[in-house]
Design goal:
The structure is a homodimer. By secondary structure, the first copy, chain A, is of the alpha+beta class. Chain A contains five helices and twelve strands. The first copy, chain A, has two domains: 163 residues, 60s Ribosomal Protein L30, Chain: A (2-Layer Sandwich), CATH 3.30.1330.100; 59 residues, CofE-like fold (Alpha-Beta Complex). In chain A, strands 1-12-2-8-9 form a five-stranded mixed β-sheet, sandwiched between helices. At the A-B interface, strand 1, strand 9, strand 11 and helix 5 of A face strand 1, strand 9, strand 11 and helix 5 of B. Strand 1 of chain A pairs antiparallel with strand 1 of chain B.
Chain lengths: 235, 235
């Protein structure tokens, strides 16, 4: 089935307490669309964090030092450190640069944290969208992560609601009848990456609507994407 | 701009020497489409490898042992080994499970290697498509990779032609006027991930056409996505 990905433009600067679901629905209407059954709404965590008030001031004369202090406060564990770069495990379990604390697209003198519980944020957003429209969408909250071994950043899912994060194909057979043994597809991450193609970092497009996608049915969590430390070969 | 991703179905089993460009154009016609300027064609490496004859027999009574031998032959370096799992650096520089050697969707008693030079494969496919249609598309050859820290597999780009692999936003400013310092987006990987959403591992859909995407202009290579070992924190 053909998939379409619509950028949701025209969303104003989001502040603490704003009704993000209402802003998203306004943007969907602005794109000439209405929410439909099966739609997947991808939202960058920055607007979720801003709406939830997960923004902190960088206090003192040295803003960089204040930023590092926030990063360390958000980290459950420092995994690597080289120069200014800190790779940390967040309290959610995600391993990423600066424990997910970000200064780009933040108001001057502030930094944006990850939402306290991005799966819960996704669920709340989904419930608000459903209450407003009667349509129950899938919601994915995304962030931009680096990866070992490969240059460049990609968007990944840090919160989901209305789907399983991973499509488990183990036990199914391939096109030549061979059992697919180790094929678990991180569909939620692929959704986040796909949405980023229309969002653009500098363009302030914080959300996208994906239509025509059949997601793995279930009520999973993005933290299902976190590999348990005992299975991890690279720490 | 709205992006559409069309699965290209109906492609028959590909064999050594087959004209993959012709098969893709047939599938594009079958989807009711014609190649247009700006189109991005994503092709899983398996059909590229099969067309190029990058398939080896697994000889001897113990097929698993023969497979491991092929994997080790394809590896430039074994990065980790645990039980049957081998994480290796390929001769291209990619770090992935089993040096990219795959038995799923391979004929019984055979294994599929990565193309010798996937960027060159992408370029050849692009030139054939251009010669046949007059339209110069972007071509991405994809494979399915695991990642450290995150469960599940995602598709990434292992060969490209007609674009830069990475969108370099360093020096541009964000929505609040702050310079984006470390924002290099692995667009080619996001394209591969997006295409996988319509391909499906068990469905034998080996290609997708993406329309409406503005790719980073240039003539890059997927090997640009390989992080130089001296910059790597996780080996």
């Amino acid at each position: 089935m053909t998939l379409t990905i619509h950028p949701l433009t025209g969303i104003p600067e989001v502040g603490h307490g704003d009704d993000l679901a209402a802003l998203l629905l306004e943007a969907i209407r602005g794109a000439g669309l209405a929410l439909e059954v099966g739609d997947v709404l991808v939202v960058t965590h920055k607007v979720v964090s801003k709406a939830e008030g997960a923004v902190v001031p960088l206090e003192g004369p040295d803003e960089d030092a204040a930023y590092r202090k926030v990063v360390i406060g958000e980290a459950a564990e420092i995994v690597r450190r080289r120069g200014d770069l800190i790779i940390a495990r967040t309290k959610h379990g995600f391993i990423c640069a600066n424990a997910g604390v970000d200064r780009s697209n933040a108001a001057p003198g502030t930094a944006i944290l990850l939402p306290l519980d991005p799966d819960r944020s996704a669920h709340g957003l989904r419930m608000s969208l459903k209450a407003a429209t009667g349509v129950d969408p899938v919601v994915v909250v995304s962030d931009t992560f680096g990866r070992p071994w490969r240059r460049g950043l990609v968007d990944v899912a840090i919160g989901i609601s209305g789907m399983e994060a991973i499509l488990d194909l183990r036990g199914t057979v391939d096109g030549v009848g061979r059992e697919l043994h180790v094929t678990e597809i991180a569909v939620a991450d692929e959704i986040a990456a796909a949405a980023d193609l229309v969002m653009g970092k500098a363009d302030r497009i914080p959300a996208a609507l994906i239509r025509g996608l059949s997601v793995p049915a279930g009520e999973g969590r993005a933290t299902d994407l976190v590999r348990p430390p005992e299975e991890e070969l690279f720490r």
